[in-house]
Amino acid sequence: MRNLTEAIPLAWQALLHDYLQTPAWHNLEARLHAEIDCYPKTICPPPEAFFKALQLTPVDQVKAVILGQDPYHSPGLAQGLAFSIPATISPRSKQFPSSLRNISKALVLEGFGPLAHGDLTDWARQGVLLLNTALSVRLGEPASHTQLGWNSLIDQLICQLVQQRPNLVWLLWGAHAQSKLPLIESSDPTKCSAILQASHPSGLGVYKTTKPFLQPGNMASCGHFIQTNQWLKNLGKAEITWATA
């Protein structure tokens, strides 16, 4: 893939038009091409899936945004959507990430039922933008691409999305996602957005903040899935079917 801009859907290109003319974008492209040339078999997800979240969720259909960090760096997991993995990986498998296990627990506690698998493509198609703040990583090396320049793209995308698509729900799980809160708030002078914050759903950290994703003992969840649907219902929009077969 020699032209990364062409991999971004046209409506998203329009949203990012000014940014895509900047040195920051051209530098990111150059660094990504260098990585792909040097490590062609160890980039996660494959380059053609870098912008899968944008390809599955058109600008005019975004209802909610879930911000992840960077893609899974273990073999066979990353697919271009935050938190999502291929449906072929069984929830009983050791490969199944703890974040997805805890998301599934939260869904059960909120009355939606468990995830049948970890492929969240259906969420994306319903308007949930599953956006990582870095869209690539080197296999086995977490956060290895965070310094390539993805941050400039994602920050601009967040700013433009807030301004052009009011009344979104922003689900900020963990400190990394919550670091974007000032950006969201400063881009939303009318404060039309719903902003939901909790600890990251992975590992033991899920319980360890003042806003836990799950209560200790898994007695209750943060309620974000119910709250998102209530927000959408109040706006007269279709609610998200969170647990799919």
Architecture blueprint of SSEs:
Blueprint: H1 10-15, H2 23-38, E1 43-44, H3 52-56, E2 64-68, H4 98-109, H5 121-125, E3 128-132, E4 137-138, H6 150-164, E5 169-173, H7 175-178, H8 181-187, E6 194-198, H9 224-234
Parallel strand pairs: 2-3, 2-5, 5-6
Antiparallel strand pairs: 1-4
Helix pairs in contact: 6-8
List keywords for this structure.
single chain; 245 residues; alpha/beta; Uracil-DNA Glycosylase, subunit E; two-stranded antiparallel ribbon; 9 helices; 6 strands; 10% strand
Question: Would you kindly provide a written description of the structure presented here, covering whatever features stand out?
Answer:
- This protein has 245 residues and is of the alpha/beta class.
- It has a single domain, classed as Uracil-DNA glycosylase-like domain (Uracil-DNA Glycosylase, subunit E, 3-Layer(aba) Sandwich).
- Helix content is 33%, strand content 10%.
- The protein contains 9 helices and 6 strands; from the N terminus they run ααβαβααββαβααβα.
- The strands form 2 sheets. Strands 3-2-5-6 form a 4-stranded parallel sheet.
- Helix 6 packs parallel to helix 8 (181-187).
- The longest helix has 16 residues, at 23-38.
- 38% of the residues are buried.
